[in-house]
Design brief:
36 residues, mainly alpha, 1 helix
Length: 36
């Protein structure tokens, strides 16, 4: 992954994936599937 970090396209993909992961985490939390 480190090789591609300087690529703007890769950064956008990473950001998009992170956003999807965060949204999934929030959705699970709202559904009570995640214990803190």
């Amino acid at each position: 992954m480190a090789i591609f970090l300087n690529s703007k396209i890769a950064q956008k993909l990473i950001l998009k994936n992170s956003t999807i992961t965060t949204q999934a985490y929030i959705n699970n939390f709202q559904l009570g599937n995640i214990d803190i």
